[in-house]
Write a structure and sequence with these properties.
InterPro entries: NDUFAF7, NDUFAF7_sf, SAM-dependent_MTases_sf. One of its GO terms (molecular function) is protein-arginine omega-N symmetric methyltransferase activity. Keywords: Methyltransferase, Transferase. Pfam families: Methyltransf_28 (PF02636). The longest helix is centred in the middle third of the chain and has 17 residues. Helix 8 packs antiparallel against helix 9. The protein folds into 2 domains: 181 residues, Rossmann fold (3-Layer(aba) Sandwich), CATH 3.40.50.150; 58 residues, no CATH class. The chain is an alpha/beta fold. The protein has 9 helices and 15 strands.
């Protein structure tokens, strides 16, 4: 991508939601081998959580990295965005169609905690918005119990990335759990210590996510080219098979088993559930 951009002398590499800093740490480790590329790269991490920022700064100490809480103040220069399991953690609105009427599932705060409520929509603006989207995505054939999830925050952030890429040149790679064709059912889930939990319990201590609607994200774009692949297709396209074979040549039997198991996990087990969206001018 950097070469296709004309090898700019300065560009921004931006990761959204870097977690514990593992991905960007690996990117730095690998790209240091390519001095011309590495010296032209300004690294920016977008992270709103102070605790995660502290973890990232500890892991990446000694490196010249800039932290932000949003994408609005990034430098006006060519930019490559990375977002790995970022969009699935954003808040959603969830709607249910029953007997010709739309209802909204809401989490309501109460004195002794929170509860899940299903209420009829009262906002004309919101009801119109949901009806139009749902009618489009189901070809007008709505059915009782159909669930539509809308991540307006995700669309808003993606459009900001699009604006940056369109104005300054660049690209974005988004990898996440998600779908292109919705199943019209709830995808909201909560996981704690690798086990599914009730998302109304242990709030703040569980990983709450919803599958990303990649088609809705794509439909929001107007000024950049966009393609969505399964993770399996993406990894094969960029040479995971050849890379795996190269690593196994000099590996011990134990290492070969571990490398091949990881190859299968990424291309088979997670290969279709995860999607990769590519944006470029």
């Amino acid at each position: 991508t950097w070469e296709k951009l004309g090898k700019p002398s300065k560009f921004s590499l931006v990761e959204l939601g870097p977690g514990k800093g593992t991905l960007i740490h690996d990117v730095i480790r690998v790209t240091k081998k390519y001095s011309c590329f590495f010296s032209s790269m300004d690294i920016h991490l977008v992270e709103i959580g102070p605790i995660l920022q502290k973890i990232q700064k500890e892991k990446l100490k000694g490196l010249d990295i800039n932290w932000h809480t949003d994408v609005d103040n990034l430098p006006e220069q060519p930019t490559i965005f990375l977002a790995n399991e970022f969009f699935d953690a954003l808040p959603i609105d969830q709607f249910v169609y029953r007997d010709g009427q739309w209802y909204e599932n809401r989490v309501t705060k109460q004195d002794d905690g929170v509860s899940f409520q299903c209420v009829a929509l009262k906002s004309r603006k919101k009801e119109s918005w949901v009806s139009v989207l749902a009618t489009q995505t189901t070809n007008g054939k709505l059915f009782n119990g159909a669930v539509v999830e809308i991540c307006s925050t995700g669309v808003e952030i993606l459009k900001k990335l699009e604006k940056k890429i369109h104005n300054n040149k660049g690209a974005a790679l988004i990898i996440d759990y998600g779908y292109v064709y919705p199943g019209y059912k709830s995808t909201l889930q909560s996981i704690k210590q690798h086990k599914y939990t009730n998302f109304l319990e242990n709030i703040g201590n569980s990983d709450i996510t919803a599958l990303v609607n990649f088609q809705a994200l794509k439909d929001s774009l107007k000024h950049v080219d966009c393609e969505t692949l399964t993770q399996r297709e993406f990894l094969y396209l960029f040479g995971i098979k050849e890379r795996t074979q190269a690593l196994m040549k000099s590996a011990s039997d134990e290492q070969k088993n571990r490398i091949f198991s990881e190859f299968l996990r990424l291309t088979e087990n997670m290969g279709t559930l995860f999607k990769a969206m590519l944006l470029i001018v």
